[in-house]
Amino acid sequence: MSSWVAPDDFAEFVRGRHVELLRFAYLLCGDRYLAEDLVQDALERTGMAWHRVQRQDDPEGYVRRTITNRFLNRLRALRSERLVGDPPERGYVDREPPDHALWHLLARLPRQQRAVLVLRFYLDYSEAQIAQTLGCSTGTVKSTTSRALAKLRQQLPANSQLASVEKGAS
Fold this sequence. Notes:
Elements: H1 8-29, H2 32-48, H3 50-55, H4 59-78, H5 100-108, H6 111-122, H7 127-134, H8 138-155, H9 161-169
Helix pairs in contact: 1-2, 1-4, 2-4, 6-8, 7-8
């Protein structure tokens, strides 16, 4: 069995974009370890198809789309898993991100709404790009964004810093 060797341009792509891809995956799923797994899986798939992906002139878009799809597929698969009474022990507790209040609000959103908000406001994707990434219509993207933002506004406590920013923006 022969081992696969990454082409130099793929290795350069990974070195240059790995941190940003991890950040994107973390914002999407909210778990550092899952984000690392999603990025690793996406890069593995991309590396195996690098020559084809590179011809599409948007390798980073391909990797982000793969991360998003793998995250959504993982959530679908988890629905059928059986829950246990006690969670496993965790040896290491991550520190909260600086905007933990916003993250907790985002984490309460359904996966599709969270994915749309991350793609729209973190990556600054257009509605058409989001629709293409998620495989839905632009109308679905618009309505999902609207519902997600309405849900976030509804959940904001009246005295929070986020609420005062929201009131100032409207």
